[in-house]
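Quick start: what a row looks like.
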Amino acid sequence: VSLLAVSDNVRAWPGGTGSHKVAGNYSPGFLPQKAAAQQGYDQILWLFGEDRRITEAGAMNFFVVVKRDDGDGLDLITAPLDGTILPGVTRASCLALAGDPEFQKETSLRLHPQEKVYTMSDLAKWSSEGKLLEALAIGTAVIIGPCNRIGYEGKDIVIPGNGLGPVGTALRKKILDIQEGRAEWKGWAVVCS
């Protein structure tokens, strides 16, 4: 999925209904989505505020995987639930799995899930430093989908790889295994035979 970062239009506003699945949260995206498609992008990356905080990708949660400065694995970063972000079950599942020592051992990944404010400036900096490893659109229908580029101020931030990287792949596999009854995980589901 390619994304066009948009700050002229807003998907959700603090104190509004951005944290709920209501029709009014989707209509602000129609015109920007059309403009993004005309520029060759698949979806919108919603930004908020003068600092261009990253919120969501289309109607999905948005995560990035960033190499840590201290060399202790990878940060899995998404925006905090501040009233403008949908608190989806897939989002919560990814954060829970990423922080679980058993999942980390199983996948040989050292992950540090974080809910924090981050901006397009942060994303551009991580990209220029070679620290931005994956960008993920996460939601009920897509489960986890890779983002390959993000258009911002006339330039593209290109995400390395060609599809899901190790973090997105591991999270997607585990969630699908649980959903489709191939694996049990700490009471999330019961395998029926």
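That is the whole record. The first strand starts at residue 2 and ends at 6. Residues 101 and 124 are 30 Å apart (CA to CA).
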